[in-house]
Amino acid sequence: MHRPSQVAIPVGDLREEDSLSDFEEVPYPTHTTNSWTVNQEELPLHYMTEEKARRRVPKAPAGNGLHDDKAEAFDDGGRDAYNKIGSVKGNMGGGRLRRPPPPPPATFTEFLQQNLEHIPPVVYTLLSCWTRFHKIGKSPYVIWDEAHFGKFGSHYLKREFYFDVHPPLGKMLVGLAGLLSGYDGSFEFKSGEQYPDTVPYVAMRVLMAMFGVVMVPLGWYTAVELGMSWWACHLVAIMVLCDVAWLCISRFILLDSMLLCFTFTTVFALTKFHNQQYQSFTFDWWLWLAFTGLSIGCVMSVKWIGLFVTALVGLYTIEDLWEKFGDVRMSVQDQLRHWGARIACLIVLPILVYMASFKMHFLVLNHSGPGDSQMSSLFQANLVGNDFAKNPLDIAYGSKLTLKNMGWGGGLLHSHVQTYPVGSNQQQVTCYHYKDDNNDWIIVPRWDEPEYDPDGPLRFLQDGDVIRLQHASTTRNLHSHTIPAPISKLNNEVSCYGNATIGDFHDYWVVEVVDDIKRGRKDRFENIHSLTTRLRFKHEDSGCYLRAANAILPQWGFKQVEVSCDKENNPNDIHTYWNVESHWNDRLPAGDAKFYKSPFLRDFIHLNVAMWTSNNALIPDPDKEDILASKPTDWPWLRLGLRMCGWGDTQTKYYLLGTPVIWWGSTASLFVFLTALGVYLLRQQRKYVDMEPREWEHFLYVGKIAFVGWFLHYFPFMIMGRVTYVHHYLPTLYFSVLLLAHLLDHFIFSSRRLSEQTKRIAFGVCTFIIVGTFWWFRGVAFGIDGPINDYWGLGWRESWNIYNL
Amino acid sequence: MASQSQLRGRKGKGPALSGPSLEPYEEEDDHAGSGVNQSRRQSSLERTLNSDKASIAIVGVLTALAFITRFYKINHPDQVVFDEVHFGKFAAHYIQREYYFDVHPPFAKLLFGLAGWFVGFDGHFQFENIGDSYTTAHVPYVGMRALPAILGSLTVPIVYAIMKESGYSSVVSAFSAILILFDNAHVAQSRLILLDATLIFFMCLTIYSYIRFRKYRFKEFSQEWWGWMIATGVFMACTWASKVNGILTVVCIGCAVLVDLWDLLDYRKSSMERFRNHFFARAVGFILVPLIVYLSFFWMHFAVLTNSGPGDSFMSPAFQETLRGNELLLNSQEIRYFDTVTIKHKNTKVFLHSHEDRYPLKYEDGRISSQGQQVTGYGHPDSNNHWQIIPTKALPETGRARVVRHDDIVQLLHVNTESYLLTHDVASPLMPTNQEFTAWPKDDLSRYNDTLFQLHLVDAHEGEAWKSKSGHFRLVHVPTKVSMWTYQNQLPDWAFKQQEINGNKNAAEKTATWYVDEIVDSESDPSLPDRTGDTPPQEPKKMNFFKKFAELQILMLQHNAGLTASHPYASSPINWPFLLSGISFWTNADEQKQIYLIGNIVSWWTCVTAIAVFIGIIGADLLARRRNIEPIPDPVRNRLWNNTGFFILVWAVHYFPFFLMSRQLFIHHYLPSHVASALVAGSVLHYILSDDTLNYPISVRGDTMRPKRQTYADLGMRGPIALLGFTFSLLFFYIYIAPLTYGTPGLDGNQVNARRLLSTWTLHFAAKVTDGA
């Protein structure tokens, strides 16, 4: 069975149709430049070699996976040759076939011929520029979420601190785009408003659309690196070019084009790295590994959805390392180097990128702005324009103050006239992240003590004092009782009750000092200072502690954070720590405190927890119908589109809708892939041989990248509680598009049974359908003028609200 | 001769290449082989313990103890405890034969009904509230509680038998059984009228039968093989029919069968024909038989519950008409034009209502209304709920043409204010996205078009007559295509806090369903009987069983998913294996007694440790094998994978799906998994104590197999010592926690605090730790 002689087949033995390029695995005589130039017409354009390599096993006469003896023998020999490729024979093969570097070009023609393969992507990139930039400034209005992201970009230009649920990199790039195009940050980006002349919105959109342009060549080269055939590479590029949803979302000042772009680069870098697997620790290997890590860092710093593609890289790496672990010939040092390389490049590097983006964020935004209250008091005090330092330092009875929860992501103690619909039905007490008069509280003495006298002697607040906290705007008192809190049922409810004259002993709170950030342990000082002293409030009657731990109230509590009274006395629970933030008292001198710097790591964690909490508060409201929102189950079938702006007859209208054939085709490919995989596995169990090992590995490898990638980008939305929109599917779509191309490649373009003619026809039909549909729907991305109902034939599904009814 | 293509397609190593004939594959029991420390003789202690007599004695003792623990003071408390509120009530409904609706399948509840009937319960007690007294109501509750107690007690010997059949020694088997025997959670759950004891009992039987079935795998298609397979199927159906979670047992057996079939598909092991036979045999045993059994319980359910009851309103009108005494059956009338009716919303049960008052011109948020007459939802009977149906087409004087039909376009006249129901493109008071409903004076014809509504009967055929009570409909506005809709949200004081009614733009909205509650008044038509009064009782209609079943099954799934309301004792699955929280079942403040569902901390923590150890062993073995080191001999490894792996599968399948469920979850949902983890604990204990020795063979030998030498597991003295140690610590904690399990005797504050072993347990009557402060 083993025929070593066939491995090293001399070139002369070949039959006519098996050209040299069949055996690209056998190193070329690269040093003999002469022979190279002689064989110019045999230039190993990778897609040609790929094409032929796949057909290395001659067509079987019966065509359905059956082999005659001859084929079998040949096949065995071929397999041996493949085994020689690398040191490891695992199931991690399947990428693009290796090819030696070409010799340096001697003439210009040679250079051209060597780079012929780059011509299609250049053409596609030019086309992509056209689609992305065509009439990009047509609608001079703030479209859809430009209202958010444009505004955030402005904040960077004005350097005012703001808060948002997304990490800062994408928005910083928006700011950068603004900076580059000469925008001064003065525009408010109100939804639907017309851009004034001072806002260079076209330039900003063009800069954002650059990310969209890059997607097309990235798609092409990813397909190349995945080892797809020439036809399939074209299809991938055409689909990426012609999807109107990708096109539409790339043409505005949004984060999605960056998210998509970095998702594409991550997949590209991963496939590139995969193809370096047999040259570990070479320069290219390190380059692509580090690039993958960098790309992960970027995609995560744009939107947290980037975690999904990170998970894909993680799974790939685990499988890869598992393979390496099984290679007993590899030395322990090499094993450790592999592990170390991945930890450094895929874990440490992305985290550094992510943190660096936050560092930049804090560095740029050094002025006080609308997002202040999300951060700790100390951080705010260090912002330019903040006057906390002017607050009186010592807290006294009669002081008006705001209380900041010191837990990660904590807010200000807040109350408002709305009442709890459950429990006591008394006035709600919550934690709120924005500055507001309803955050103000006044320290007043107990009921059994003489009333606070504004003219009497000053009485400073001390550790252990029993006080009432009066809500300034409603004069009610902070109150707790043994009724379970609305969300944390095991804690007591905290409410506001009574008024300046009505109340009872349930309004008493014991002030317990924990320590002071500046002055240290509590026995070292007497007076309680604003900002730096850490306090706890114990309910005197029930012994529970005032606590706010990022549990979100339902709509009736406006999605604010629940405040409850914790019966467990856990002295280390940071969620029961509070500090005085703003402090007003006319009778005390304004302080002039110097504050410690707020450490970066603290701010970083604090901001991330706050983002997480706000993100979790974005849950669909059952009482309110959000016509823009859609369910994950709607997306693969393209059940709903999304109106991105007003739908008046005079407006230019944009509708976020995919190219239907691409969406439906890619969804169908998911099912076809699973079915095909199932059938192949069943047949393998019965020992039918449908493919040679390398083909099977290739089928699996590309299938895994595409299908697992799709699954990881799709399934988490199903269990996520938050409200979802159709544009959440856009990164997911990429993987199903790859899968569609892969399956077309597998069943048609790389099939041994079909003739070149058939393949050409199939390719033509696919391209025609895709481009045709794109052309049909181009208006939704380029903008539709005039009454929408004048445009015939866009409502392919009844559920699309593209027409006015 | 096998077909040509089959043979030609097969390629590769192995005998198949050598020729077209398929050699009979010699089956091997992969638990045998070299590498095991082959102790062919047992120590005398081991031999004595593993003898049949000793085994029977052990089972006897365990069963007796199980009955004692489950029946001890079973009459206490003589009050309704926790979910007895539901399941007691359902039993009462069976005895009264009144139709009810519940999310769980009927088998376990039928058993309770049977038990209640057996002990003479008349079904009049309604189990309304936790704490209602049984003694004052003369309910034979002990008899009903005895049923789960018996099943719960019998679970213990079955667990022993599962381990014994899996090839473990008596000591290890007893260990697993004792983990269940002295577990407070199992005891507390089995002593009350709850479904879990039945569920767990049948789940254990399913596992037992499946293992028996697997042991006959070398004697395929023998009588015993068929017998145990069908037994598995039947018990599986019983498990599933006891409680919805029983479906997990089905999934778990399904997984095992699929793995088994995948193995059989291997071309070296069987021909396609053999595989086909196996496949169809399993289709019968694991799909067909269980389905028939499962359906038969529903058939019984419907056969018993023939009278109208509290569950009627969940069902479709057609279903309701099959119940004797149902309101629809009694009072459903065809509606004719010019009838005056009251219209009720199906989900929120409010009447369509209107009154003189008008919408305020300006709302709080600054939006403007039409200032038209208010149309609201009102919960109580009132003459302002009366609407008359006005035709939009010419009608004959008499006859069938005056009946209102599906898809007819009608106007609704509010009788008291003489105005027509109308909607228009004005935002409703509370929802800017929906249209305002109002009423327009009868004489003003300028808005005629806006008063037209089309009547869409739900699931109706062309020309179907509109009937009161049963004719559920949506009212779709003709010009704007919105559906009349309401939801639980009150309007402000200006509308007397009545419910808002508005036009939902999704015309097909499911919750926009209404029905005519009553025909208040009709034009006198001498040819018709008086339709406003009651009619003589009618015979219930017939309905296809499968239709009934499908309807009920879909409703059960919907409602099960809908149980999302928060509950103070609900806990998330991650807490369960570690016993972090329990459920307060019942309290008695006078004597400071309480029942708190919590497990035996030794038992639960042993189980979860065993799972961790198993995963550790398998993980380490996989890693080692990857490096070409084989630390565990093959037979032992196979036993670990096949047997302990199966137990782990049972555990995982009964546990992890809960993470995906958004409904409210309680620690008792973990009990089936806990049983599985006790099985895992037993086999892990065996692995640790046995020095790589196995009992072999345990499967029944096939005819074509070569006989191999027997080997025995040898635990020596370590086994009994470990067992005794565990038994004592289990017993100690069991007794310590027992007052919380049995609800007696009462505990004072400090005793409660002492029994609060973990700070997360929320016991009642705890003394304040902070008293001194």
Automatic annotation (TrEMBL), chain A:
The chain crosses the membrane at residues 202-222, 228-246, 253-273, 285-318, 339-358, 661-682, 698-717, 729-749, 761-777. CDD domains: beta-trefoil_MIR_PMT2-like. Its main location: endoplasmic reticulum. It is found in: Endoplasmic reticulum membrane. InterPro entries: ArnT-like_N, MIR_dom_sf, MIR_motif, PMT-like, PMT_4TMC. It catalyses: a di-trans,poly-cis-dolichyl beta-D-mannosyl phosphate + L-seryl-[protein] = 3-O-(alpha-D-mannosyl)-L-seryl-[protein] + a di-trans,poly-cis-dolichyl phosphate + H(+); a di-trans,poly-cis-dolichyl beta-D-mannosyl phosphate + L-threonyl-[protein] = 3-O-(alpha-D-mannosyl)-L-threonyl-[protein] + a di-trans,poly-cis-dolichyl phosphate + H(+). Gene3D superfamilies: 2.80.10.50. Keywords: Endoplasmic reticulum, Glycosyltransferase, Membrane, Repeat, Transferase, Transmembrane, Transmembrane helix. It is an enzyme of class 2 (transferase). SUPFAM superfamilies: MIR domain (SSF82109). Residues 392-446, 458-514, 525-583 form the MIR domain. Pathway: Protein modification; protein glycosylation. GO terms for molecular function: dolichyl-phosphate-mannose-protein mannosyltransferase activity. The keyword Transmembrane applies. The keyword Protein transport does not apply. It is a multi-pass membrane protein. Belongs to the glycosyltransferase 39 family. PANTHER family: DOLICHYL-PHOSPHATE-MANNOSE--PROTEIN MANNOSYLTRANSFERASE, PROTEIN O-MANNOSYL-TRANSFERASE 2. Transfers mannose from Dol-P-mannose to Ser or Thr residues on proteins. This is Dolichyl-phosphate-mannose--protein mannosyltransferase. It comes from Neolentinus lepideus HHB14362 ss-1.
From TrEMBL, chain B:
Its EC number is 2.4.1.109. Keywords: Endoplasmic reticulum, Glycoprotein, Glycosyltransferase, Membrane, Repeat, Transferase, Transmembrane, Transmembrane helix. Pathway: Protein modification; protein glycosylation. Residues 1-46 are annotated as: Disordered. Residues 332-392, 401-458, 463-519 form the MIR domain. Pfam families: MIR, PMT, PMT_4TMC. It is a multi-pass membrane protein. It is an enzyme of class 2 (transferase). This is Dolichyl-phosphate-mannose--protein mannosyltransferase. It comes from Neolentinus lepideus HHB14362 ss-1. Coiled coil: none annotated.
